[in-house]
Amino acid sequence: MNASDRDKYFFDLNGFLLLKGALSAVEVSDLNAALDALLPIQLGEWKGRVHGHNFADNDGVNLQQIYEGGAAFEGLIDHPSWIEKVKCFVGGADTFDYNHGPLFIDECFANIRGPGEAIGFHSGGHEGAKRTQYRFFNGRFHCGQINILMALTDIKSGDGATMVVPGSHKANFPHPDAERNRMRGDNSSVDDVEGAIEIHMDAGDAILFVDALSHGSAERVNPGERRIIVFRYGPSWGNFRHGYQVSDELAARLSPDRLQIVRPQQPLVPE
User: Could you tell me where the beta strands, DSSP code E, fall in the chain?
Assistant: First the structure.
């Protein structure tokens, strides 16, 4: 689905869009079943080409390179609910940024989080990082990283919802609560950050957001699991955040359009 004028306005204003019903009930069921087949996974463990990982001590477990986990995950690479919007916001059409195609996925993972777990407040326009930047120039978007965060479970109050500070992708100053939390050694969640809002989701909803947006999550206090998948898209000249590489087996299964997004260039080596 293409980015509408309404999408462009509210993405520019807030830094994110909530895509209701981005995944069907069948897709959610298939993704959860495929995830169950990979679990349990320990930190540092490999299940085929899927890797157990975390960012910090209290943010759950990530299953990195999740598109290697089976056909259900492969279908997310160019999902019609968001792929044209992502192309619009990453931008670069008719420029050198399109030299090897419109996009590249530099990271994709599933995350499972239980009670007491959260991810801390991070990012913001003030950082000016090229990889995550928000930019609008000459009538077009040129964003360094657009994230699609998909809910595989309902995520409501107490479930550890994603939290954002709307408009912070354009901030020129760090959020004052970020420095306060850093000084007291508290980076466990975004629950007490002024201006941050919880984004509640039904299973199958997705959030599209520019990574320059200040974000994190509330702490999960309810029993059970919060399950999400995140795909990070940027320009085709990017590289993998963690050094993972696409397996030849996956490359052989993918359509040309999907392969171009996960491997924009074929390795060039002497014969």
Answer: 16-19, 46-47, 50-53, 61-64, 104-113, 136-137, 140-141, 146-151, 162-164, 197-199, 206-210, 215-217, 226-234
At position 93, the amino acid (one-letter code) is: A
Tell me the whole-structure pTM to 2 decimals.
Answer: 0.95
Residue 199, domain member (yes or no): yes
Segments forming the whole domain that contains residue 129: 5-262
Q: What is the pLDDT of residues 15-71, one digit of tens each?
A: 999 999 999 999 999 999 999 999 999 999 999 999 999 998 889 999 999 999 999
Four-CA torsion 182, 185, 187, 190, nearest 10 degrees: -80
Tokens representing residue 106 in the block: 């530099």
**Alpha-carbon distances of 234 from 85, 225, 249, rounded to whole Å:** 12, 29, 23
Q: Tell me how many domains the chain contains.
A: 1
- Residue 115 near residue 221 (C-beta atoms within 8 A): yes
Q: Which residues pair with 36 in a beta bridge?
A: none
Supply the Cα-derived Rg of the chain in whole angstroms: 18
